Amino acid sequence: LTLALWRELAALYRELARDERVRSVILTGAGGHFCAGADISEFPEVRATAEQARIYSAAVDETNDAILELPKPTIAVIEGFCMGGGLGLAVANDFRVADADASFSIPAARLGIVYGAKETRNLYNIVGLALRSGCINLVDCIAEGKAHEAGRELAARLAENAPLSIAGSKLILRQLSTEGVLDMAAIAAAEARAAGSEDYAEAVRAFAEKRKPTFRGK
Prior knowledge:
alpha/beta, 4-stranded parallel β-sheet, 9 helices
């Protein structure tokens, strides 16, 4: 993960948020691993001073926020190593599907780095304060076969749901987990949008007609 890639990922997730064709998003790595973490070799150029470290951390937070705020289901499909900033990306997703041999690590203390507050909060929300070996509760599903196949199956199931319902649920859950105070006006607006949507009317008709609804996110 280079500084440039952090910024590219943030822009990509904002684009995905705007794309009405997208119903769920899978984040995965290449080459048999999810992510080896930040590119330490570029730190002498991009993270050599306290001010550069602040700018770098802001880019990391921006990316993780873009994932958290995406109003669509997000899934991290993990195989091999998932380390440092890569683990931060994984816990920013709604779900984590992993191979049985996936390995997780945060080597920040070995690098003289304080792991980011937002990344730590996301991790804490999942595993709690007492971090024990085995990454308790870190992974939602350990795939019996390949994680990629299990991740695609989960994404397909999630994509069948009404987009406005998913967006509203994520809004509430995000506020509960990251802010602690509910923005009732924003929640009421999400509820009203869903209640007045074509998807809601379609769901009611489909129930009466005993068929599967077709949602459009409108």
